[in-house]
Every structure is written in C-alpha cells, then in structure tokens.
Amino acid sequence: MPSKFFNPRYWPTWLGVGILKLIILLPWSVQMVLGKWLGILIYSVASSRRKISQINLEIAFPELSKADLEKLNRDHFISMGQGLIEAALGWWGSDEKIEKLAHVEDFDYLRDALKDGNVIMLGAHFSSLEVGGRIMALEMPIHVTYRPHQNALIEYLVALQRDTKYGKAIPKSRIRDMIKSIKNGSPVWYATDQNYRGKGSLPVPFFGVDAPTNTGTARLAKMTNAKVIPCITVRLTGKNDSRKGYLIKTYPPLENFPSDDALNDTTRLNQILEDLIKEYPDQYLWTHKRYKNYKTENRDFYKEYSKSQLSGHKS
Fold first, then answer.
1. What is the pLDDT of residues 79-126, one digit of tens each?
2. What is the dihedral of CA 231, 233, 238, 243, to 10 degrees?
3. How much is the pTM?
C-alpha cells in the first residue's frame, strides 16, 4: 500500500472503513436498521442533495402529491444509507453470508448469450449495486465499469476489492479496456443513466423530459457485436416480496439492437430503465443532477425549482 495513505489527512477515512468493517459483522437485519438511521441522518443534514433528489422526483413522478414525493424522497435517503453499508458488505463480507441473502433469477439469459457471443449488461445506479455485483460475481466473473472516487484512499481500497471479488474493474474513461474485455468474452456491466455532457451526448427523454445522455451502450454494442442484456440489483425487504436479501435478475437480450439511429437506441434503453426504476423508485439514485444543462431549451431545472421552493405540486 502506498505510504501516502498513512498521512493524517486519511485517518478519518480509515476510521470510517474500520467502522464499516465492524458493522458488516452484525446480523443483516441490524445492518439494515443502522443503514436506515444513517439515511435519515443524511436526509436531515444534506439539504442540497435532498433538494436535488426532490426536484428529480417531481420531474419523474408529476402525478404524485407533494406529501407522497416527500415520503419517497425520505425513503430514498434511507435506501442510500443502507446502500453504504451494503457496499461494505459487498467488498468485505464473506461469501457464505452473501450467498444466504442472494436471490438470483433468470441468469440463464446471460449464460446462454455468452455461449453465442459477446455481452454487455445494461445496468442502472440502484443503491444495492455493489453487493449486487458481488452476488453476480459469485455466479460468474464479471467486469464492471465505474467512476473513480475523488478520495484517493477510497479509490485504492474499492478498486482493489472490485478487482479481487468481481473479476475486473474498469474506469469509465478506459473505453479500450471495455472493448477488450467484451471481445474476450467477459460480460461487462455498463451503466449510462447519469448526466453526461461529453462526446456522444444527446438530449434523450428520461421520464418524459430530455436529459443529457451517453449513447455509449449502442456504440459499444456495434463495435463489439455484443448482445445487450438488461439487469437489475435491488434490495428485498419482505414488504412487496416475502423474501429478504437481494434480487439479482437478468432479462432477455434486446432484439434488433443496435440500429443505425443512436437517438432511437438510447431512447429505447432509457425506457427500459424507467420501467425497472418504477418497480423500486426509492432505491434508484436520485441525488445527482440528471437534468442539468437541458439542451433543448437550455433550462436549469434546479435553479427554477429552487426559486419556486418546490411548490409545484398540490398535496
């Protein structure tokens, strides 16, 4: 380990890592209770992120009352708090403990597709994606793409665990590494559902409103002749499903994809993601500015909603 990580400025990070490692030794039900209260604490103090999430939810679910939106927002932060502990479980938890929580469905879609050729797994940023990735890796080695963390120590520790537990971790900027993995027959988990204003960005409807979107999935599929398989990793709490733990599910490969129209392809992918998100709306990541720099009308939703104090919905 690089000696710089023993610098005092990293001591708070080490303390946080130590606490998380202790928490994952507790029973899963206790972990979820601690995660709930952690989420409520974040909801109470992180006013900026709470506002961004509220704005996104108002855009995505205009049919909901203000009271329902506020409850959904609070539930989302609870899910994020639980997701932080689940990330630690995915990185440092034992195989035995994780296998007891795993509910894997329809993974034959992935296995069969790999027999015929290359595969891209269409993912989305749900709060349980880290532990979900670990569960998928117990089924077969997978390569995951990710955005590097700003904290160098966290980036070092997380990249190490992902490489060790998943198969391979690929920073999103390393397109050539993604192509190499796909062409070598490794399933690559790839998510393009966050705000993107780089090369290849297009304004694509997301819950009915254009958002800057990465068209990379279609381009990667075309370059590698890969099938695209949607997948979902979500938490089961025993409410709508009697099971508890994590649902890992894959879906049939997309037919006639990609086409020669990047906008239509990406719109189609966003619609698929919307349908998955609607099943577990509180578990999706709403705290980033998904609609920032809306190109069609050059609007700033976050500034507009801040001025109106989020009063556009009647309770």
1. 999 999 999 999 999 999 999 999 999 999 999 999 989 999 999 999
2. 70
3. 0.89
3-state secondary structure of 15: helix
d(CA 228, CA 62): 31
The answer to whether 270 touches 185, Cβ cutoff 8 Å, is no
Please tell me the distance from the alpha carbon of residue 122 to that of residue 227, in angstroms, as a whole number. Answer: 10
Nearest to 232 by CA among 254, 252, 248, 253: 248
Domain ranges of the chain: 3-308
CA distance 44 to 184: 47
How many Cβ atoms sit within 10 Å of the Cβ of residue 279?
Answer: 12
Query: Of 9-18, 147-156, 233-242, 281-290, which range is least confident?
Result: 233-242
Q: Which residues, 6+ apart, have CB-to-CB distance to 63 below 8 Å?
A: none
CA distances from 280 to 119, 221, 276 (A): 25, 27, 7
- Do residues 42 and 76 make contact, with C-beta atoms less than 8 angstroms apart? no
